[in-house]
Design goal:
Blueprint (H helix, E strand, L loop, with lengths): L1 H13 L16 H13 L21 E2 L3 E7 L5 H22 L3 E3 L6 E6 L4 H11 L5 H5 L10 E8 L4 E10 L4 H14 L26 H10 L10 H14 L5
Parallel strand pairs: 1-6, 2-3, 2-4, 4-6
Antiparallel strand pairs: 5-6
Length: 261
C-alpha cells in the first residue's frame, strides 16, 4: 500500500497537481464564485448520510456546523512508526491553530478529551479503527462502520460527523487517514478532512483554487477555502438554515470579503 500511494503521489506531482500554495494569479475568483461554491459545498453532500459510498440524491440540505468547542485529538495505529507519529501530530496541531484563527470558533488540539478524533492508521490496524469508530460515535450505521475495515484504495481518507439531527449541530467527528500515504498526501488529507468535518461536507468541480474539488490540483487549504470557512462560522449563519434562507446572508458576507477578484 505504501508503494502504491507513493507512486500515486509521484504521478500527481508530475502532472503539476498537489499544489501547496494558496492559489495564485492563474486562479482568480470573485465574490460570485465564492457564493456559488459555498452553497454547493455547505448545503449538499457528496455521499448519502449513513449509507457508505452511496452517492447523495443531489438535493440541497440544511446548514450544519459546530456550536460547541471543537477539541481535536490524534490517535495512531500500532503499525505507525514513532517518527511519523511525531511529524503527523505536529501537522494536526499546527493546522488546528490555523482553523481556529480562520473561523474564530474555539478549536484546539486536545489529546485528553477530544470530540473530533483523527485516526491515522494502516491496513494492519483496521480492527482497531473499526472498534474506535464504534466507541466514538455510538449508534454509527453498519455502512459507515464498514468504511473502517473495507475501504477501497481509491478512497484516500474520509470524515464522519455526528450530532443533533434536530438542531443540525455537530458534536462528534472521526476522520480516518491512511498511514501508508507519503507525508504530502497525509498532510493533504488532514487539511481536507478537518475542514470538511467543520461543515463543508461536499466537493464541487467549479471550486478553484480549492481542496474541495476532486481534481487534486491543490493539496492544502487555499485562500478561497479560508473565506468559505470564515463565512460558515459567521454568527449570522445558523445551523438548520436552508440554502434559500442563508443565501442573502452569505452573498452579503462574501461581498465584504477582501479576497482576490
Amino acid at each position: 500500500m505504501a508503494r502504491f500511494y507513493s507512486r500515486m503521489q509521484a504521478d500527481l506531482l508530475a502532472q503539476g497537481l498537489l499544489r501547496t500554495g494558496g492559489g495564485g494569479v492563474d486562479t482568480p475568483y470573485t465574490d460570485t464564485d465564492l457564493s456559488r461554491n459555498f452553497e454547493r459545498i455547505a448545503f449538499y453532500d457528496e455521499y448519502a448520510r449513513d449509507q457508505g459510498l452511496k452517492k447523495s440524491d443531489g438535493r440541497s440540505g440544511r446548514l450544519r456546523k459546530w456550536k460547541v468547542p471543537v477539541r481535536i485529538g490524534v490517535e495512531f495505529g500500532a503499525s505507525v512508526p514513532k517518527e511519523q507519529r511525531v511529524a503527523d501530530r505536529a501537522i494536526v496541531t499546527g493546522y488546528t491553530a490555523r482553523l481556529a484563527r480562520i473561523t474564530g470558533h474555539p478549536i484546539s488540539a486536545n489529546a485528553r478529551n477530544p470530540n473530533f478524533h483523527v485516526l491515522i492508521m494502516g491496513e494492519d490496524d483496521h480492527d482497531d479503527a473499526r472498534r474506535r469508530a464504534a466507541q466514538i460515535i455510538p449508534g454509527i450505521s453498519q455502512a459507515s462502520l464498514d468504511f473502517f475495515s473495507n475501504l477501497p484504495r481509491s478512497i484516500l481518507c474520509f470524515v464522519i460527523t455526528a450530532g443533533s439531527e434536530k438542531d443540525y449541530e455537530y458534536t462528534r467527528a472521526v476522520a480516518f487517514i491512511r498511514a501508508e500515504h507519503p507525508q504530502l498526501m497525509r498532510q493533504s488529507c488532514v487539511h481536507e478532512e478537518l475542514a470538511q468535518g467543520l461543515g463543508l461536507a461536499n466537493d464541487s468541480p467549479t471550486a478553484r483554487p480549492s481542496i474541495f474539488n476532486d481534481d487534486d490540483e491543490f493539496a492544502f487549504l487555499t485562500t478561497h477555502d479560508e473565506e468559505l470557512l470564515r463565512v460558515l462560522y459567521n454568527p449570522a449563519l445558523v445551523p438548520g438554515m436552508t440554502a434559500d434562507e442563508a443565501r442573502p446572508i452569505f452573498r452579503r458576507l462574501f461581498a465584504r470579503e477582501d479576497g482576490p477578484s
